[in-house]
Amino acid sequence: MKLPSKVTFALTLLGLLLSSCTFSLLDLPAFNSTPVPPTAPGPTPTPLPAAAVTFNVTLPSPLLPGETLYLSVVDEVTGVSLNPINHAMQAMDATHYTLTLPFAIGTVLTYRYLRQAVLPVFEDDSSDRLVRYRMYYVAAPGIVQDVVSSWTDSPFSAPTGRVTGTVVNAADGKPVPNILIAIGGQQTLTDTTGSFIIEGLPAGTHNLVAYALDGAYQTFQQGAIVVEGKTTPANISLTPSSFVNVTFTVTVPEDTVGNAPIRLAGNLSSLGNTFGDLNAGVSTVASRMPVLSPVGGRVYTITLSLPVGADIRYKYTIGDGYWNAEHAPGGAFVLRQLILPPGQPLYQVQDYVSTWQDSVSSPILFEVTVPPETPVSDIVSIQFNPYGWMEPIPMWPMGGNRWIYRLYSPFRGLNTFQYRYCRNDQCGVADDVATPSDRPGRLVTPALAPQDLQDSVTAWKWYASLPPTSLVGLPVAVRPVGFWAGVEFLPGSDPTWQAWMSNAILNVQALYSNWIVLTPSWTVSRTQPLVFAPLPGRGPLYADLTRQVNGIRSLDLNAAIFPQANLPIATLDWWKNAPRDEAWWNAWFERYQTFAIHHADLAAQTGASALILGGDWVMPALPGGRIGAESSGVPENASARWTIILQEVRAHYSGNVLWAVPYPDGMDNVPDFVSSLDGIYLLWYTPLASSGSASVDEMRTAAGVLLDTEVLPLQQAFNKPIILAVAYPSADGAATAWMPLPLALQPGNGQGTVDLQEQADLYQALLAAVNERPWIGGFVSRGYYPPVVVHDTSASVYGKPAADVLWYWYPRFLGLTP
Fold first, then answer.
1. H or E, element range at 765
2. Kind of pairing, strands 220-226 and 204-212?
3. What separation in angstroms does the CA of 198 have from each of 202, 207, 237, 788?
4. How does DSSP assign 556-614, residue by residue?
5. Which residues of the chain have pLDDT under 70?
6. What integer pLDDT is reported at residue 47 of this predicted model?
7. DSSP alpha helices (H): ranges in 368-449?
8. Residue 312, by phi and psi: left (phi above 0), alpha (psi -120 to 50) or beta?
């Protein structure tokens, strides 16, 4: 039997919440969308007529005795597993079921199948991953044909095919990136060429939906027949949406805390939806949601530009889509539906929040006093753990290092639960020292009587007030125009980072940096067949990255894009386990070419100053590539393939293209095609001493020897600028490079003993060595953790003495300071 560990949380949570789920044969989903007459000019949208939709589904095998099959309508705003409405289906025979339901025309339905006797068993796909949800667009009465691949308690075993296609703008024929493609319980995003691939679809008829995360294009839908071992083409034209201003005005309950921010949580990316599986199965992040403005009394308002015709699901909240969101008088979650008809330049929507509470339990007031040394720019967040840690929520400042948060809901079916405090939503890293990630949180039990919990954070994990950094002044040689004085942001870009990116960019500018290197990523979610594509929740969305580059450029800084791969396991192990036969290598080079072109387009479209390719994860695919001491089996024509890839990159991006070479591991196999590029981005992480007691001068000498004997010959061989991209952890013994680099780049890794001064000394030694070598074209600090300062053992220099070292050297290299 397959172990359903990947859905343990979902199974447990849904099993505990069964009493709050709706099980019926023909219930319409309970969307609270009753129109209210407006108080200002402009019509309030009226409900659209309903259409009957018939769902026909084929199962991989008959149900077990006593089981019922359900169509589960899920709510992404609250959380995919947190507010389902389950409809029992009728059997046509042992493996075919049907159900007809009415939905408002224009609805984009999100749903999946489950079977249940006691606990629910969810459907998964052909690679045994839980189905997040399927999609169906209700344009008229229709019939849906679905095929369940398998269940979470049994392995997949059936013939499969694939669907590939391209999405273009119907108005101009240009490709459309960042479109969600949903088919057969699987999802992917289109790249900048508009292309997508869905692998491993069971043979049969499926429904394909193309959906714009921001509603900028009208939803597209068509059937797709998948044949065993074949590729089904699906070329799609999307019609651009028109946008109108919509003014939301809401009256909130009398017991709403006066200074609490009222947010609008919704299913579009502009309303806080990340379209990813975040902590404990939620998809929305409070800090990404728009905040309404008070207009007097208990009335709040906001005007947003929203797409006409899009199915907009939303709710009001003083938390996120789950915590402290609005409820109906009986306690059920409220999820409103708004479909804007065309023809009006302005819409007014008036809403009324009945209650923030879902049960008879009284609200709980959390009051916390934090240390006076807490950075004034930090926001204190609170995180709750009912069945697993969920996404953090910003608290409300009261001044004097005091923060509060009043929790109203949901308490139904909830006994004792945990909570903890952290900074800037980075729970698990920037924690209260009493409740770090390896310890349980504080406990609280809902009660009939109001509670006022008064806590104190005595100190923050990985943070303390630091004395001024002592800097040794040295003469600095001004470098010519084009010298890089930069910072590379940490790969990984969690959706909670976006709210803090602007502040991070300003902090990097304050170091006198002239470059910021961004590290967006694609995710390998399947190795055979290879699935390598952008995945929401595991990297910045296209719009996020565009905002980041625009923010960098607005400060007259250069932006570079250095794309990464999220691998499911350690890089070396992943390569060892990959099939690496001829067909697999063909797929790898095809996907890498798509990956490279996507980021070349991204660099061109955002105005980035450089694109960096390569890195340690591609080394086995280079000509003569190896995995450890053995050949990787890379095809003999690898050199020609790389030449084609780089030619395509040049055709899509006219800026500087650099190649990232790991030092020292990649020095013995630097590919010849580097001679056609514009520079070498040398990923430097190597010992500069045999112990942590070496002096700065000793480490400078050691660095100089390595630069002169190993790096200078590389620069001379290719006659290309060398950008030294440096990562050293702020840990005791960092000079010996004892900590594996992937671990050193991980904030709050908890390895070793913090030694901030040793990291600063390493930077001082390296910068002094660079100062003596005019042939080096730049210096970049890697691993910068953008959302918050942590004085941990990671390589991030944010708020550490090593940043002060950069602050001394960078303006002098650039001729800004004598």
1. helix 756-771
2. antiparallel
3. 11, 13, 18, 37
4. T-EEEE--EEE-SS-HHHHHHHS--SHHHHHHHHHHHHHHHHHHHHHHHHHT-SEEEEE
5. 1-47
6. 62
7. none
8. beta
Q: Could you count the other beta carbons within 10 Å of the beta carbon of residue 424?
A: 25
Domains plus CATH for the chain? 5-227 (2.60.40.10), 364-456 (2.60.40.10), 484-813 (3.20.20.80)
Q: What is the DSSP secondary structure assignment for residue 707, as one 8-state letter?
A: I
Model pLDDT, residue 16: 37
- d(Cα 217, Cα 197) in Å, to the nearest integer? 20
Q: Distance of CA 216 to CAs 174, 245, 313, 543, Å?
A: 14, 14, 16, 12
The burial class, CB within 10 Å (0-12 / 13-18 / 19+), for 440 is exposed
CA distances, 171 to each of 180, 218, 799 (Å): 19, 12, 48
Q: How many CA atoms lie within 13 Å of 740's alpha carbon, on the beta-carbon side?
A: 6
Say if CB 511 and CB 487 are below 8 A apart: yes
Rounded to the nearest 5°, which phi and psi values hold at 354? -70, -45
The predicted structure's pLDDT at residue 7: 37
CA nearest neighbour of 262 among 274, 248, 275, 273: 248
299-307 vs 396-399, strand pairing mode:
unpaired
Neighbours of 398 (CB within 10 A): 13
Q: Return phi, psi of residue 96, to 5°.
A: -130, 130
Give pLDDT tens digits for 374-389.
999 999 999 999 999 9
Q: Taking a C-beta distance cutoff of 8 angstroms, is the pair 784, 510 a contact? A: no
Count of residues in the chain: 818
**Tokens 């429904």 identify what position?**
207
Distance CA 423, CA 789 (A): 9
Strand pairing class (346-352; 442-444): unpaired
pLDDT at 5: 37
Contact 311, 266 (CB under 8 A): no
632 vs 623: CA distance, rounded Å? 10
Are the CB atoms for 57 and 147 separated by under 8 Å?
yes
**Whole-angstrom distance, CA of residue 120 vs CA of residue 329:** 28
- H/E element, 805: helix 801-813
Q: What is the model's pLDDT at position 259?
A: 85
Cis peptide before 529 (omega within 30 of 0): yes
- For the CA atoms of 682, 686, 689, 690, the dihedral, rounded to the nearest 10 degrees, stands at -170
Write down the pLDDT at residue 46.
Answer: 57
Terminal alpha carbon distance of the chain: 70
Which residue intervals of 448-581 are DSSP H helices? 501-509, 542-554, 571-577
Strands 364-369 and 402-407: antiparallel
Read off the tokens for 355. 């209650």
Task: Report which residue type is found at 99.
Answer: L
Q: What is the tens place of the pLDDT at every residue in 774-805?
A: 999 999 999 999 999 999 999 999 999 999 99
Backbone angles phi, psi at 506, to 5 degrees: -65, -40
Own/partner contacts of 590-594, CB < 8 Å, gap of 24 or more, are: 591/530, 591/532, 591/533, 592/532, 592/618, 592/621, 592/645, 593/644, 593/645, 593/648, 594/191, 594/193, 594/195
Please state, in angstroms and as integers, the Cα–Cα distance from residue 645 to each residue in 529, 607, 648, 680, following that order.
21, 21, 5, 17
Two tokens, residue 213 = 């995360």
Helices (H), 452-581: 501-509, 542-554, 571-577
Q: Residue 598: helix, strand or coil by DSSP?
A: helix
The whole-angstrom separation of Cα 495 and Cα 543 is 12
pTM of the entire predicted model: 0.93
Q: How far apart are CA 340 and CA 348, in angstroms?
A: 11
Q: Cis bond leading into 307, ω under 30°? A: no
Burial tier of 355 (Cβ tally within 10 Å: 0-12, 13-18, 19+): middle
Contact indicator for 667, 661 with CB cutoff of 8 Å: yes
DSSP label of 485: E
Going 695 to 697 to 700 to 701, the CA torsion angle's sign is negative
Pairing label, strands 679-684, 656-663: parallel
**Cα-based angle 563, 565, 569 (whole degrees, multiple of 5):** 160
739: which 2 tokens?
């900590």
